[in-house]
Specification:
Elements (H helix, E strand, L loop, with lengths): L24 H17 L4 E3 L9 E6 L11 E13 L4 E6 L7 E8 L1 E7 L5 E7 H14 L14 E3 H4 L8
Antiparallel strand pairs: 1-2, 2-3, 3-6, 4-5, 5-8, 6-7
Bound molecules: nickel (II) ion.
């Protein structure tokens, strides 16, 4: 089911979400199906549970060809419960980001270029992946939502923040 996405200004987006506990497991399949339906309906690259008003540490992401991110390298569709991120470098890279909770806008955000993410899949099996580039960026963006952080809080140069259609009148949505 497609769920209404909370938008920036809603205090629920600023809260820390809690770990998924065994008692939450029965509700997980429905939550993930709703998140997937909602992300696909909006051509998102990812979605975090708090964006649909559920304060649990659950994110999904994945990019095949996405019209919102036409130049993005593919990222396998992933459902991640209780994720933990560990940067594998101090190197950061600037890149354009958008967010379904900040509609119509884009900003340049620094992110670690390489990181390890760990967590559980919906069946409770451990996921450990070392990733880089856009994949690493998407994971950092989505996991920030679990700590109540929206990407505008990460922008260092506010001159690189604006409406997508003004920034990219030709339709290209990234650098
Ligand atoms: Ni977002």
């Amino acid at each position: 089911m497609i769920i209404n996405i909370l938008r920036i200004g809603d205090p629920r987006l600023l809260e820390r979400s809690r770990e998924v506990a065994p008692a939450d497991r029965p509700a997980l399949a429905t939550l993930l199906a709703d998140m997937r339906d909602t992300m696909i309906a909006h051509d998102g690259a990812g979605l975090a549970a708090p964006q649909i008003g559920v304060p649990l540490r659950v994110v999904i992401f994945g990019v095949e060809h996405n019209p919102r991110y036409p130049d993005a390298e593919p990222v396998p569709y992933t459902e991640l419960v209780n994720p933990v991120l560990t940067p594998l470098t101090d190197d950061e890279e600037d890149g354009w980001e958008g967010c379904l909770s900040v509609p119509g806008l884009r900003g340049v955000v620094p992110r670690y270029t390489r990181l390890r993410y760990e967590g559980l899949d919906p069946a409770g099996k451990r996921i450990v992946r070392d990733v880089e580039g856009f994949h690493a960026r998407v994971v950092q963006h989505e996991c920030d939502h679990l700590d109540g952080i929206l990407y505008p809080q990460r922008i260092r140069d506010m001159r690189k923040f604006g409406f997508t259609e003004v920034l990219f009148p030709e339709g290209a949505e990234r650098e």
